[in-house]
Each structure stands twice: as C-alpha cells, then as structure tokens.
Amino acid sequence: MEFIDNLPPMDLMRSEKMTFVQLIIPVESAHRAVSYLGELGLLQFRDLNADKSPFQRTFVNQVKRCGEMARKLRFFKDQVSKAGLISSAHPDLQPDIELEELEIQLSEHEHELLEMNSNSEKLRQTYNELLEFKMVLQKASGFLVSSKSHAVVEERELDETAYSKDRYVETASLLEQEMGPGPSNQSGLRFVSGIICKSKALRFERMLFRATRGNMLFNQATADEHIMDPVSTEMIEKTVFVVFFSGEQAKTKILKICEAFGANCYPVPEDMTKQRQITREVLARLSELEATLDAGIRHRNKALSSIGFHLMKWMNMVRREKAVYDTLNMLNFDVTKKCLVGEGWCPIFAKPQIQEALQRATFDSNSQVGIIFHVMDAVESPPTYFRTNRFTNAFQEIVDAYGVARYQEANPAVYTVITFPFLFAVMFGDWGHGICLLLGALVLIARESKLSSQKLGSFMEMLFGGRYVLLLMSLFSIYCGLIYNEFFSVPYHIFGGSAYKCRDATCSNANTVGLIKYQDTYPFGVDPSWRGSRSELPFLNSLKMKMSILLGVTQMNLGIVLSYFNARFFGSSLDIRYQFVPQVIFLNSLFGYLSLLIIIKWCTGSQADLYHVMIYMFLSPTDNLGENQLFWGQRPLQIILLLLALIAVPWMLFPKPFILKKLHSERFQGRTYGILGTSEMDLEVEPDSARQHHEEFNFSEIFVHQMIHSIEFVLGAVSNTASYLRLWALSLAHSELSTVFYEKVLLLAWGYNNIVIRMVGLAVFAFATAFILLMMETLSAFLHALRLHWVEFQNKFYHGDGYKFRPFSFASLIDDED
C-alpha cells in the first residue's frame, strides 16, 4: 500500500486540484483586471447576481453599447460580403483605440453607408424606370406603328383582328384604321403600355381578360435586358405589354390591375417623331445615370474596403469588451461601493499566474489600492478540469459525452486511449481495411495546420477532431488483421509456411479431403490453411467467442480495480470492504473461473465442453465431471467458488447501509466524528450538499439505493459478459462481408474473359469496400466499442455527475464565434 501511495500522480488520471478564491478589486482597475484574466483563461467566475435580471445589473448600459456596436459590425460584414470584397483576416497596424472612439467611428461609418445605400437605391430605382421606359418604347412601337404598305396589305376587320394569332401584324393594321394623324377619338380604341415580371405575365393576362370580359387585346414581348432589383440585387426577367381596350371603365379596371400586380405603366406617344425624341432623351439620361452609379459604387467599395481592413480587429475588440462587461456583471459591489467582489474557481497550479496578472492590472491602471486575492472554503463541489492536448482531447471528449467526471474521480480516458481503438479493431480486424483507414488518418494529420484554420462541415469537422482516434483505430486494425490473417478477407503466408499439408500425396483438394499438421504451429496469427477448410467457421467462431469473453472479463475487472483506487483516494474504507471485495469475488468466482477454463483448454488441447461445465456448476455442483474435468481438484474448487459467489451478494447488500446508520446515530451522541467525516461524507453524500446533509439520514432510501446497486451488479455481471460477445459477432460479420464481396463480386467478374465485365466488377468491389466496409462497418464498430466503454466498463466505477471547468477566456469566445 505504501508503494502505491508513493507512486507519482498520473497525468489525466485525476482532474486538476481546484481552489475557491475571492477577488476584491478596486473599481478603477476592475476592467483591466478582468481583461487580463480573460487573456489568461484560468479562472471561472461565479455569478453573484443570479437573482437579478440582466437589466438590473451594474454594467447593463455598457453591455447594451457593445451589443449595438456588434450589430453595426455585423451590418458592415454583411455589406462587405455583398459587395464581393474580402475582409482582412490579419491584424492591421493601426494603434489600439478606446471603446468610445470606436463607437463614434462605427456610428459615422454606419451613417455614411446608410446614406450611400439610400442614394444608390434611389439612383438604381430611377435607372430601372428609365431602362424599363426605353424597352417599352422599343417594343410598344412595334405594336402601334407599321409602314403604309404593310397597313394596306394587312387591313382587315376588327373581329378578325381580335381573334388573329399574328398579334404584332394585325394590331398595327387595326390601329391605323382607328388612329389618324391626329389624336385618338374619345370613343375609339385606347391602349395602356407597361412592363411586368415575366413570372406574373400569364396570371396578369388572365385577370385582364376576366375583368374586361374579353373586351381587350393583350400583346406582349420579352424584354431584351434583365432588370436588377435594388433591394435583393437579383436580376429579374421582365415582359413588355400593350393592352388595347375601349371605354373609360375598362381603363380604370386595367390600371388598378396593373397596380395590384406591380406592373409599371409608361405613356407611349402615338406620334413617331415624339417617340424618337423621347427615346433620345431617355438614352441620354441613362448614360448619365450609369456614370453616376459607377462612381457611387466605386466610392462605396472604397469605403467598405477601408472598413473591411479593420473589421476583424474591431469585431474581436467588441466581442472581448462585451465579455468583460458580462463578467463584471457577475461581480458584486462591496458596502463602500468602491470595490467589486468576485468569486470563482481556479486550478491550484494557476494561482501564481493569476496573482501576477492581477498585479499587472493594478500597476497598469495606476491604482493606489492593490487587488486582494485569497483562498476561501466552498460548500459546493469544484468543477472538473483535465489538461488535454491534441492527441488526448478526442478521447476525453468520448468520455465526457457520457458524463463529466466527478471532481478528482478516476478518469476513464486514460485507459480509453488504448482500450477503445483496440476493441474497435477486434471487431474490424482486417489489415487491408486498416491500411485504408491509416492513409485517411495520415492525410488529416498531415494537413492539420491547414484544416484547423478552415471552416469545415459538420461531418468533416467531426472526422478531423477524431483524427488521432482514427489513427490508433487503424493501427490496431492492422494488428488484429495480421492476427486474423485477413487482407480484404484474403489470407497470406506472411510469417512462414503453413503448419498443415494434404493427408497423402494423391490429395487434390485440401479443403475437402482434410489436412494434417506436419510442422510447428504458424508463428503469428491464424494459419492461412484454415481459410476455406471445412472446420474454418467452427474454429474461428470458437476462437473469437472465447477471446471476447477473456477481453470482457479483463476490462470489467479493470473497472472494479479502478473503483478500489477511487475509494482509496477518497478515504472510503466502507466502499473497499463492502463493495470492492464482494464485487471482485462475485465476478471472478463465475466469469473469472470461466476465463481460467478457456485458457487451460487452449493450453492442454482438452475436448471438455465448457457449456456443460458452467451449467452443471449451478445445477449439480457435487456430480462427477467425467470427461469434462480439466484439472485435478476442479469439483471442490467449483463448490467453493459457487459458495463465495452466493456469499458475495448479501455481503454487497446488507452491511453498508447498517454501518452508515450506526455511524450517524453515534455522531449525535458525540463520539465518532472522525469516522463519520471519512466515511459517510465521502460515500453517500454528494459533494455539493456536504454540509447540509449531515443533519439528514434516510435509512430506507440508502438501503433501497444499495439494493438497486447490488442487483444491478449481479445481473450486470451476466449481461455485461454476454454483451462482450458483440466483439465476436461483429468480427465475424465483417469477415463474412469481406469474403462475399471478394468471392462473389471480384473473383466472379475476373472469371469472365471480358475487360468491361472485369472493370464493372472491380468498380462494384471498390464501391462496396469504400462505402459499406470502410464507412458503415467503421461506424458500426465505433458505436459498439463506445457502448462497451460507456456501459460495461464505466458503470463499474465512474459516476460522471461532475461539471466542466469553464474559465472566462477570450480564446473560447473566438471558438464559439467560429
């Protein structure tokens, strides 16, 4: 025991030791102190104003100002991206500016941009109207006027005109009949010309037809140019129309319908001379507006480029300032209103760094009074903080997804680094597939610096985050694939020749005639001669099933041993005596004994039936084992182990609740304070209620909890051991799927003397390997390995009811923004 106590602490095994601290900060140095602590990122503040709403806090106005500045910066970012400009990702050389000065600058820039946008929108609206007018003039003149010769040839009656398919020609003839060189008659034919979105043209025509009861003629032509919407900046396709009608009521209806459909109407004179004159004026104004718009866009882009150069720096500055004021709102004023009082958690190793940062803040703010930093006692449990690196972070995340470790509890991630990829590989073992995964992991690691700075999709981000998990999974898959001797399901004589040969010289088919062993056993992994033999499946099933049980019992024992180290660390002798010891006895009396039988059978080559041995160990423990006896003294050993397993159940269930009750009653008689402090408090009391729970003791609740825990362990010992058989099942499924794709797809296609069939077979084999075996099977094995760790391994010792250490850090603000 002394040797164990003297061992150096293992990294990641226990969370960092935390301490509860109080800060008393003068008002004049509060902002700078919190800023320096944010840069350090090692202090988690506690909210001392949790009972107040955000609007009742001290620095609410500063938070509102920062929020308003953040809104303006988002507006600038949106404008820069719409303009197709790129904001500078590198910090500029501009000296630091104060928040008040930045606020003034942002207001000026916003006012300038809004004014430019407003002017640009108005100019664009005028330009669009002139452009539409030009297109209406061009298209409508074709409907209204035609040459005299054309009019003579095409002159017809009004009824014929109304129902003619050739609208362009017939309408012009009809108008020349009705219109003279002078103005139209009041009772004659009139027209309305304009332009409308092409998507609305059909509905517009139907509505006009119904409103006028068919007493109108609708002509349309697609506009030559697209019109840009000034709001959405999208190019819209439009259609020019001319509606011929008669009567004042029809005109009123048509104009109302045009307004409802958003159609713009433009007056087109009947006189050709006037049309040409108006067209020239429109073209002249369009050219002027184009020049004005281009100048405006250049000026706006210049202003946006200037903003974009400083945008990232400004956004980071505002984000930091808002975070500082949000943190200051978690602090309380003392009675003199001259100091702010804050409380929080920090790792013990970080105390000198925090003190140095606070001293720097006092010096830089020219404060006459220093910042007081002292350690306090805390009632609640400290947060959990593990210092991880790029390699261990992914494994820690796997554990934290189940639950964050209780403060100073043994961390499963230390063992998960090896056991998780290994159990994955047991199910996935194929060194060909492992090499494919290894190449993918190496690509992600080689491009680590580039990918870490890019915005990745959700799937790619998850894959990149687990690149080192993928690396170990691939390496262990290659190792297990060499043991199974499978390369895309094909065995190879890598480590020498086979130990088996044909029964005699006339043997033509070793798979059917049979094999005999003629030399030493194949040195590493499964002998390739088992492949395709009659006994292949029974042999591999037996091997993988027994191996799964051995791995499962080993890992469950590891979990129980870790519960011992937890109990020893927290000084809980009750847990060691009445939880750890009976659990070890129960599990190993049954399944530890089964593992021993498997190893003895492998070593001796015995033909004993282990199913029979284990079943009759319970049904008839005193009967003679006969041919199923593996070693001398097996029957009395089985009786002893069975009795130990039976004794272990009440040993787990009864002593602990009664001892706790006795300790509690003695506490009120004033005798055994020390025992109570080291037992009850560490065993049954949650750390966040340690001080309050001394006054309460509900025996029935504790007894029921212990009974549930005992029953769960006893039943779980059976079900968890059976659960590890998934290692055998998934390994078999992976191997059989690989064999099917190899034999029934690739070899079948290669049997044809046709290059097309061979290429198709190769493509199908590659597709099945990539998407089914390398993606779906990888995900399946990953999830099953995850379940084995979360349920079968961690439930033996891991509470997982802690909460993460979340320090105030500017670096985490940038990560959250990304």
Automatic annotation (TrEMBL):
It is a multi-pass membrane protein. One of its GO terms (biological process) is vacuolar acidification. It is found in: Membrane. Keywords: Coiled coil, Hydrogen ion transport, Ion transport, Membrane, Transmembrane, Transmembrane helix, Transport. The keyword Coiled coil applies. Residues 97-126 form a coiled coil. One of its GO terms (cellular component) is vacuolar proton-transporting V-type ATPase, V0 domain. The keyword Transmembrane helix applies. The chain crosses the membrane at residues 422-445, 466-484, 547-567, 579-600, 637-654, 755-776. Signal peptide: none annotated. GO terms for molecular function: ATPase binding; proton-transporting ATPase activity, rotational mechanism. It comes from the Eukaryota. Belongs to the V-ATPase 116 kDa subunit family. Essential component of the vacuolar proton pump (V-ATPase), a multimeric enzyme that catalyzes the translocation of protons across the membranes. Required for assembly and activity of the V-ATPase. This is V-type proton ATPase subunit a.
